[in-house]
């Protein structure tokens, strides 16, 4: 257990040292980045996926160079569209959703590192057609309007009460501040003007 902790600390130290030396000495930073890669691979450390993706984004896997977009690497975004099998025209899809990829190209060794971005599913907001087509009875609308009026009044009352409480709290703070300043002798900046 202690050996794994030491290895993790060494890897963290090498990573931080590489980032600190990235501008001053890119060659030394690349060497430290490569040393960190080898250390993690040789020790077989379990690195969380999120941390691994962040490391792949910041350090080149081939030369160990610190990848700073626009300075030591080039970043491009690509979208991979749906593809259909050419042999089978029965519209069998190879991939169901378009994937968004970000490619990091190291300007030192020209290696391309691709990362797939997580896409969030689209939310569908809408009412069903049957609910929109039906009209409520006239008696029901009056009672719902009254209920809505009551809820808005209670909402307004509660917001007014909150506003009064806030205002009262602010006034109390101002009065307390004034009493503290008056206890100091009551000197003001204008008392010392010539």
UniProtKB/TrEMBL annotation:
Gene3D superfamilies membership: 6.20.50.20
Region called Disordered, residue ranges: 117-180
Superkingdom classification of source: Eukaryota
Pfam families the record matches: Rpr2 (PF04032)
Coiled coil: none
An annotated GO cellular component: nucleolar ribonuclease P complex
GO biological process, one term: tRNA processing
Protein name, as recorded: Rpr2-domain-containing protein
């Amino acid at each position: 257990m202690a050996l794994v902790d030491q290895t993790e600390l060494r890897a963290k130290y090498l990573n931080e040292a590489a980032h600190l030396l990235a501008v001053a000495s890119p060659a030394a930073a690349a060497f430290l980045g490569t040393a960190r890669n080898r250390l993690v691979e040789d020790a077989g450390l379990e690195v969380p996926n999120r941390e691994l993706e962040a490391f792949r984004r910041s350090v080149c896997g081939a030369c160990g160079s610190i990848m700073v977009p626009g300075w030591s690497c080039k970043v491009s975004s690509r979208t991979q569209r749906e593809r259909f099998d050419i042999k089978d025209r029965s519209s069998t899809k190879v991939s169901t959703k378009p994937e968004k990829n970000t490619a990091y190209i190291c300007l030192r060794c020209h290696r391309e590192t691709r990362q797939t971005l997580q896409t969030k599913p689209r939310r569908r907001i809408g009412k069903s057609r049957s609910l929109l087509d039906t009209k409520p009875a006239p008696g029901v609308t009056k009672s719902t309007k009254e209920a809505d009026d009551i809820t808005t009044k209670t909402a307004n009352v509660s917001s007014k009460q909150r506003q009064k409480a806030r205002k009262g709290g602010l006034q109390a703070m101002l009065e307390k501040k004034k009493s503290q300043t008056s206890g100091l002798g009551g000197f003001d900046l204008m008392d010392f003007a010539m």
